[in-house]
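User: TRAP transporter small permease protein, Parasulfitobacter algicola:
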Amino acid sequence: MHKAALGYIRAVDAVNHRIGRIVMYGIFVLMGILLWSSFSKTFLNPTLWTLEMAQFAMVAYYILGGPYSIQMGSNVRMDLLYGNWSLRKKAWVDLFTVLFLIFYLGVLLYGAIASTAYSLGYWGSEPMSFFAGLITGSEEIGRTERSPTAWRPYLWPIKTVMIVGIFLMLLQCTSELLKDILRLKGETI
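Assistant: Predicted structure for TRAP transporter small permease protein:
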């Protein structure tokens, strides 16, 4: 169990670290989009795609960078009491609170999967069977959802990014849970 937990922690931390280090440069993509938006509105004809593309870039930056933030401990915390606690007490509190976060992320992941299925034209109530049917060939993509703006981009790509980001966050929270358990057993990670 101990070796399996350490292997899981190392694998998840490595994946989220690499993705986080790449995604952190997404802020420059966002800045480029907004700079182009300002330039085109001032000197050229305003473009339709810049505001919505900036929103999509920010969602990807935030969602895919979240697991890295949790891993680095740079997420926002209420340190009024927490900062003065011992490592053991912090591990107990983190162990307890991460369970709520894992539950919340599970609900959020199911909602993201259902929303993505809807954006691919599925109108039923079983999104998991829809995706299983896509793999086996028994389902087809229907009328895909588009944004109601003038640009009208498809929404399934950003919803897919949300699924990936929430799933990575769920994996990272499970890794943090295992780290807390190992800390409570007195082991160094």
